[in-house]
Specification:
alpha/beta; 7 helices; Rossmann fold; globular; binds S-adenosylmethionine; 214 residues
Length: 214
Amino acid sequence: MTDKPWEHPDWYDLHDTTWTAGPEREPEHYLEMLLALPPLDARDHLIDVGAGTGKLAAIIANSYPRLGRLTLIEPNEDKLERARLRLEKILPHSDIRALAMRLGENDALPKSEATIVSIGSVLMPMMELGGGTLADGLRWLRASLADIVAILKPSAWVYAIETLAAPWARGSLDDPVRRLNMIELTDEFYREGLQAIECVYRFRDRVVLRGKVA
Ligand SMILES: C[S@@+](CC[C@H](N)C(=O)[O-])C[C@H]1O[C@@H](n2cnc3c(N)ncnc32)[C@H](O)[C@@H]1O
């Protein structure tokens, strides 16, 4: 079997634009993440990290309008403001906080506050966009996962929707940074102390992975 599938003309024609999960299917993937969550209510505090303009938080909030507290963490202040305004409309009675902070950079993130953390397409893209080597990317990922573990209350869950490396992605620690495959990402979750790790949804390169703290 070749380790360069893109060089095979039949394989190439089959996979040219079909490997990735595809933006047109994104609502389906986000819905699956929503369906995998436990029920959320007035006593819950959801912290959505890398909230962007609030797409994932809005999907969750629309289905759990009695959510007690919501914290949006997003370094881009314009996006964060849009997310805050969007979520305040959906959850007029909830306690909503917006923090312009980032994972993995020693920011003063909340500690032991969340009953649940959601991460929508943040870990793999930001690791890749950070540049450098795979070792550099892993340093950032590990610091970010440590931040997430610290944000969670005891027994709380983190749910992450991520887009993995393509199966043909190669490269070890000194090579350019790349996304991780399923086993590598799962190992990183274990490494930072998460337990009961499970892939609750997968479609091609798109996965929903969950884990909890002790
Ligand atoms: C692909 S977007 C996803 C946004 C949103 N979660 C969603 O599902 O639509 C990734 C977001 O992560 C944010 N981000 C970048 N670096 C970050 C970091 N170190 N910590 C947290 N968020 C970060 C980006 O600004 C961007 O808004």
